[in-house]
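To the wet lab folks,

You asked to see what we're planning to order before we commit. Fair enough. Below is the target structure as tokens, and below that is the sequence we designed to fit it. If anything looks off to you, flag it before the synthesis order goes out.
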């Protein structure tokens, strides 16, 4: 169960990143060329937020199953001294929750805008902020914060 969840959560990061990059790319193009906000633009907005929400659910389930997290909360006083444990116990979840809220708010605000240019601008700003935070909070093999492989 734990291994499957880690695998899914690890692989899903690529979907989260690709969908965000694609949504940002489309909104940048749309904004700078002042084109119409199409049905496709709207489904890209919708699916990007949905993919982030699926990753959130996977993350929450993984959080409840992970031996790393169990160890962290059982031995909080000593465990918080280890940055790797602190990263997965608190920092990762906090930054990822914040970024998924940012995607959700941006997506909902874009939906409510009446002018097409405003829709593109809203997606561009909110999704870019979320992407930057997600990129920082992923435990890349090269990250100075915590390290996990590219693929499980
Ligand atoms: C966009 C959102 C997120 C992304 C891209 C993401 C990405 C990742 C990646 C790449 C790993 C390393 C997986 C591996 O070991 O190979 C990881 C680990 C982990 N993530 Fe996330 N995550 C996200 C959100 C969350 C959330 C919201 C939670 C909790 C509610 C969470 C909980 C965890 C936990 C507990 C681990 C470590 C599991 C362990 O080593 O036992 N993640 N995450």
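Sequence we intend to order:
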């Amino acid at each position: 169960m734990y291994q499957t969840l880690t695998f899914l959560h690890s692989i899903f990061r690529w979907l989260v990143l690709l969908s965000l990059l694609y949504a940002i790319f489309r909104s940048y193009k749309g904004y700078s060329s002042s084109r119409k906000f199409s049905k496709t633009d709207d489904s890209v907005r919708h699916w990007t937020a949905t993919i982030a929400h699926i990753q959130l659910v996977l993350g929450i389930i993984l959080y409840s199953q992970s031996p790393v997290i169990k160890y962290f909360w059982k031995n909080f006083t000593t465990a918080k001294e280890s940055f790797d444990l602190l990263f997965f116990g608190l920092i990762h979840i906090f930054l990822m929750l914040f970024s998924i809220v940012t995607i959700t708010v941006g997506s909902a605000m874009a939906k409510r805008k009446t002018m097409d240019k405003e829709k593109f601008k809203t997606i561009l700003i909110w999704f870019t902020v979320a992407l930057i935070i997600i990129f920082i909070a992923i435990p890349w093999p090269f990250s100075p914060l915590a390290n996990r492989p590219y693929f499980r």
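Structural context that might help your review: Helices lie at 2-33, 39-65, 67-74, 76-79, 83-112, 116-137. The chain has a mean pLDDT of 98.

Thanks,
Computational group
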